[in-house]
Design goal:
Elements lengths: L2 E6 L2 E6 L10 H16 L5 E6 L10 H5 L25 E5 L2 E3 H9 L2 E5 L3 E3 L13 H9 L1 H10 L3 E2 H7 L4 E3 L4 H14 L2 H13 L5 H15 L5
Parallel strand pairs: 2-3, 3-4, 4-6, 5-7, 6-9
Antiparallel strand pairs: 1-2, 7-8
Helix pairs in contact: 3-4, 4-5, 8-9
Length: about 240
């Protein structure tokens, strides 16, 4: 099984489980990841999704051996991206629990998440660019929105490895913990998030995510509309 799922209280834990390939994602793993996220979206008892990797590694990116063998579906504008889930925002908060390598498509998957909890073993980077492979999972879009254009260009144009301490300074990581503690900490964060009243929490998250394509005035109206809906009042 390349992707495992497990209920942990209010959270659905999704584990990339290909440790022999440092959890690099091939076609079947991408499909399994998509099914796991879709199941979390449908389950009203799941408040938060936590994504992690087995064997002390988050995800080394796309499986280059599978790619060379033609085993990954060819990318297209209308088809799913290599990591499957990254073109559509999740309706629920998603936390990445990162240990070890978080490169390429794995890095883009972590950027897709709302929050990133990492251990001091974590390393981040768009190493795929060094192999001539472009970003197709939202990395060039989300990275700049997260840390700013100048810092994003530094990481993109050098394709260098970013150690955990620097990632925290850049704002790539929300919280840094000791080795082996990323998942327990992420699950504790999930508990705190789930304890908030869902309508208000979801309205705040949706307003923040929606604002990027809106003018300030429209973003403020959207915040009001979502807030009133959370209160059960017509806008």
């Amino acid at each position: 099984m390349t992707v495992r799922t497990e209920r942990r209280g209010p959270s659905l834990l999704i584990t990339l489980d290909r440790p022999e390939r440092r959890n690099a994602v091939d076609g079947p793993a991408a499909e399994a990841l998509g099914r796991a996220v879709a199941a979390a979206e449908r389950d009203d008892e799941v408040s938060v999704v936590v994504i992690t990797g087995a064997g002390g590694t988050f995800c080394a990116g796309n499986d280059l051996k599978a790619l060379a063998a033609g085993e990954l579906p060819p990318p297209s504008e209308d088809g799913p991206p290599p990591m499957n889930v990254t073109r559509v925002p999740a309706s629920k908060p998603v936390i990445a629990a990162v240990e070890g390598y978080c490169f390429g498509g794995g890095f883009e998957l972590a950027l897709w998440c709302d929050l990133r909890v990492a251990s001091t073993t974590a390393e981040f980077g768009v190493l795929n660019l060094g192999h001539g492979l472009p970003c197709l999972d939202g990395g060039t879009v989300r990275l700049a929105r997260l840390i700013g254009q100048a810092r994003a260009l530094d990481l993109l144009l050098t394709a260098r490895r970013v150690p955990a301490a620097e990632a925290l300074t850049l704002g790539l990581v929300n919280h840094l913990v000791e080795p082996g503690r990323a998942l327990p900490e992420a699950l504790a964060w999930a508990e705190r998030i789930a304890a908030l009243p869902r309508p208000a929490r979801q309205a705040a998250r949706r307003s923040l995510l929606d604002q990027w394509s809106l003018s300030e005035a429209d973003a403020l109206r959207n915040e009001t509309r979502l807030g009133l809906a959370a209160l059960g009042r017509p806008s």
